[in-house]
Design goal:
Elements lengths: L9 H14 L2 H19 L7 H14 L6 H18 L1 H15 L2 H13 L6 H13 L4 H11 L2
Helix pairs in contact: 2-3, 2-4, 2-5, 2-6, 2-7, 3-6, 4-5, 5-7, 6-7, 6-8
Length: 156
Amino acid sequence: MSQPKKTLNVSYLEEQAAAVRKSLPADNQSALFEAATEAGYLTALADGTEDEGEREALVKAIEILSAGMVLEWEVEPLVEKIAERVAKEGNDARCAAIGKRLKELGHAEAALLIGAIVAHATAGIDKKEAGVLEKIGTAAGLEKKQLAAVAKKARG
C-alpha cells in the first residue's frame, strides 16, 4: 500500500466544508460533492490507473469536505458512475464538464482541493496530475496562480 507523501490538510478542508454548507443549498452541495469526487478520480487516472492510496485519500477527503454527508460506502458506487462517464466521454471532456459545473456552483477551489489531495496521496503532484487539475481549473475560470495556491494548501 502506498504511503501518503504529505499529510492531509484537514483544517483547510474543514474550512472549505464550512463555506460550502454556508453558501450552497443541499441539492447543490450534493452536486459539488459529486463534482469533487470526479475531480479527484480524474486526477488519480492521470497516470493511467488509480491506486489504493489515491482511493483512500479520495474517500477521506470527500468525507471531510461533505461533513459526513457522503459516507465511505457511498463513494464506491459514485466512482463507478463517474468511471462510466469517463469511459464514454473521455478524460478531457469530463475535465471540461466538471470545470463548467464547478464554475456554476461557485466552489471550484473545494473540488480542486480534492484533486490535489489525491495527487499528493502517493508521490506528490506530477506533470500529468497537474495537467488534469489545470484543465478542470481553467474550465472553472481559475487562474494558474489560484490553482497553485490550491495545490499548496492540499499539503498538511
